Amino acid sequence: MRYPVAGLSAAALLALALVGPASPAGAADPPAAAAAPATPAPRPAAGLVWRDVPNDAGRAVELDWEPSADDRRGDPVVRGYQIERSLNPGGPWTVVDSVAAGVTSFSDQTLLRGIEYFYRVIAAGPGGRTPAGSVTGPVVATSQWFNGTRWSVLVLTMLFFGFVLYYIASAQSGKKPFVRRIPGIDAIEEAIGRATEMGRSVLYVPGIQDIDEIQTVQALIILESVARLTAKYETPLKVPVTYPIPFAIAEEMVRGGYLHAGRPDRYDPDSVQFVSPEQFAYVASITGIMMRDQPAAHIFMGSFFAESLLLAETGFATGAIQVAGTANVHQLPFFVVACDYTLIGEELYAASAYLSGEPKLVGSLKGADLMKIVLVAIILAGCVLESFGVHELTRWMITQ
Q: Do both 220 and 334 map to the same domain?
């Protein structure tokens, strides 16, 4: 149907173009689109039960429940379940975690031992959230004295201590276990002997870390043996230290070394010097000693970092014989290229037993070595058994 447009304003014409012609009088409006049916809220989950997790420290429980009746494959009513926890059966509730539809178990590993908790499961979907009809609790996680999945750890630990105690007893009875010769350790006595011949001092640097670093402990143990040798040859010893506690221990080690050598009167209280815990202030002080006093032997034992090359290069420039040892793998290349002898990795820990001959140290060293052999044998046996489809050893070694 055509409508006359003459006499209409521009605004009316624009409105007519956008809206379109009006329907004739009496014409029925088009039927409205049928509204999409709303997704209903899911029916609740049920049957929530809990059980304590075995072989743990009382930090976890397992939860299981029956799924919602609407939890069916392809049905969008249930999208997942939310696990809520509270200290009271009436709330307030805190969401611990959520799982997807079809999952009916959850392990809560964030509990505090001995605290009572209450749980409920929420079925969630596009139509809303529906809490379970009942609350489960009180739930209390308990710890066990023994972890039954760690028998292998117990057996191997007892075996290790058995090896150590056997070799300690053997060494104390005069039957000294064999310890292979380490050239770097033998070079320590050579370096001290050279300093004695030249009438110059020995510089001993026990690393730059505090006493909480095991390499510092080993360096201080080795220091006693070095002090014993310098006392025997009447060679001056200088020991700059970074931290107060290693300083006090170093003084006792040097004093003990002179005492064991039968030369307590030769002990110099100024042989151990507290310098600075600042890394490069400490290095500057040591390089100053190297250049001014010209020690004939430099012994670096312990934990070193960026200063290792500075120390070793300065010592090399003075012409001193240098023996170094560290377990910091990233610093070994610098010591290897700039020092005459280098103790690599675990040789640092073997040095104290090698030099002192102390039965406890020697026994611990031999026990650890034998335990390493046992572990390598277990690994090889496990590889062979797994290749033939025998899994008992692997299951026994698995720990939780």
A: yes
